[in-house]
Amino acid sequence: MNHTALHVLLLAVVVLPLLGSVAALLPAPPGLRGRDPRQAVLRHGVTVTGAVLAATVALAIGFDHGHPARMQAQTDVSWIPALDIRIHLGVDGVSLPLLVLTALLTFLCALYGYYNQPAGPSPKAFVALLLLLEGGTLASFAVLDLMLFFLAFETVLIPMYFLINRWGGAERERAAWRFILYTLLGSVVMLLGLLLVGLKGGTFDMVALAAPASDSASGAGGSGLGHTTQLIAALAIIVGLAVKAPMWPLHSWLPDAHTAAPTVGSVLLAGVLLKMGTYGLVRIVLPMTPDGAHTYAPYLAAFAVVGILYGSLACLALARTGARGDLKRLIAYSSVGHMGFVLLGIATLTPTGVNGALFANIAHGLITGLLFFLVGALKDRTGTTDLDQLSGTTGAALYGRAPRLGGLLAFGAVASLGLPGLAGFWGEMLAMFGAFDPADGLSRPAYLTFMALAGFGTLLTAAYMLVVVRRVCMGDHPAEPGQHPAEPGAARPALADVRGHEAAAWSPLVALTVLAGLWPAALLGLSDPAVQQLLAGGK
Length: 539
What we know:
single chain; mainly alpha; 21 helices
């Protein structure tokens, strides 16, 4: 595919959701005709997100896979000349998989919203916010200007706040306020670091700032920043991005947000928004502030490992009998652990570790997106996500009552725990391989310790995921004191199994989880040359 076609496709990917968001608020949205205005606007959301997904897939097909390190489909026009801020877009092997993941999950969320019409305020607002969220997220992965990256990064906060606050469950207002306060405070700190990099580096262009030292007139790395400046800028940017990642101990907004958010919000929050933080570390911190990255890498790795253990232990506590655990909250804490592996891989500063981190990003988006869809379906059927109720005598026992739904939940659980042959395995393994032999100048004994602790975290992950499968799918929770356990042959209320539209929506996530597990080179072949080039930015 020629450059002009790719250029147009990338522009369409970024602009279409924004135009669709505005169109959704018009008196007569241009979506396909429905039975009523409510259905028409929801169908409009499916139509626009479907068009964006088609454009993203076409972009991926036309991408020059022989040169994934080269920035392709670029648009570069002046926006604010006085500050040298440009509308610069492009895609390479690092950002392309994230664009496809974002477009896919948003389309599936729009499809979910169409068949499970959201209760609450006007569906026009719901669709407009969903499309604005998609546009901001896609722009975050496509822009190549530091100020545009910050604006796109901030754009996603408002729609997610309203999705939680207006369509969420219990305590949604508190969860939404915690989400917006944490992320906005982190963004303010990040902005200071980005301004320091841009002003001291003489440009806000991310490609120029990430250029290898041999291509830089200063010879001090692509950004041309001094050592002290790099330390200050890297610290500010890392803190801001770590809130979104989320890195322990800056994660405390996440469980509340996931628990209160509607299914669509949980899927996009876990599957896409968390990736923006780790993407920023790879795209900005590693190549533009290499001295700062090297200085803070051991601390980042230590926090990552604590997050792995903390998230796993919290999940194990929630999964045990009588803990009054919420299944959505458990999956939220599991994200803290899984994203810990992503941060550990980045902190190794090696191609192996960073490639593992990027692979784990995609795997987590697929698997956790599937799990939140399944939990949403379970709540629609049973009216609860409380583990005690789901596993009690009036609970689900999915294997017997809805075997396909139970099988999918078990599949998501074993994929999440890192079963070899599924997507969850490779990213975490490569992150630990990177820790086994970290970059020059990093303490190998310390990283070997981190690797061992992360390995123990995988055992804890297997433990709590298997407990969840046993309790929810088999329903073997004992009766409370004074109650009589259900007879083995006792009839339970009917529970609908996987419906046709659910099978159509979830099948791509299952298929991609298997495909990425069996053929990891499909992703690693894209990311590795680009990662090699980014890591060369400070050498």
